[in-house]
Amino acid sequence: MKKFLGIMLMVLAFTVKIAAAQTVEISSKVASKSVDPTSGLVNHNSGVVESDVLLSWENGFYVQIWNSQVLHGESTSFGNSLEGYVGYANSIAGWDYDLCLGYTSAPELTTLETDDNLYACVQVGHSIEQVAEQLSSVIGSEVSFSGFARFEHYETLFDTDYEGGNLYSVGFESERDLSKAWLSRNSITFTYDDGVYGEENGFLSKLTAGLNYQLSENVAITAEGDLFAELSDFDGTREGLIGKLGLTASF
Question: What pLDDT score was predicted for residue 171?
């Protein structure tokens, strides 16, 4: 793991050296529990601090480091986790795509274990403009709607306890300016998991309600609630309410 982090840091340093990042986003949030944002898998069933640094360039390349640390007690599964990504995201003929190489180290951050995972990922998506426009016309122009359909494929690159797989999602998002500083963001997503990480396959839904308060041009307070519901038998492993509160800065 140390070797991989060393390589990641060298890649990051080299990239920053040859071109300054167009965008830098930094966030840190306290969450009631750690949950995979797409598949709904619970990584740790009590409070965690999740921090993220994303550097992106105009040409589509990006580098991202994400960390989760439990607030109290011992870590379960991926409660204490460090993830690194190098990728390229762009669009062609109306289709958005994201190609990335990712690494997850858990639960010990200093050893290479079977819980660690090096993988390649491909994400392809397309906006659903017609339905979004109809929703805007019914509810009102003050609310901005967008719809999407997305496919995600994960391929593990060495022997690990976790397998690759696919996620198929469709959903809708809305934004509304409540005032000069307040912004409301809400979404609903339906996902089919065909067995990512070697888990059971099935359907689930995710309902998200969030508020942003803009403290300054670059810094915002974010509050968010995610409600996962199982639409097929996952034995209760992918349902529940997760709350998050934190700060986000972009430059």
Answer: 93
5-57 pLDDT, tens digit per residue, is: 444 555 555 555 445 568 899 999 999 988 888 888 888 888 999 999 999 99
Helical (H) or strand (E) element with 177 = strand 165-177
Instruction: Confirm if 136 and 145 have CB atoms less than 8 A apart.
Output: yes
Domains and CATH numbers, the chain: 2-250 (2.40.160.40)
Residue in the block written with tokens 């097929």: 232
Provide CB contacts within 8 A for 192, sequence distance 6+.
167, 168, 169, 201, 202, 203
Q: Tokens in use for 56?
A: 């992106």
How far apart (Å, rounded) are the C-alpha atoms in residues 47 and 69?
9
What is the length of the chain? 251
Pure H helices in the chain: 2-18, 129-139
pTM value is 0.83
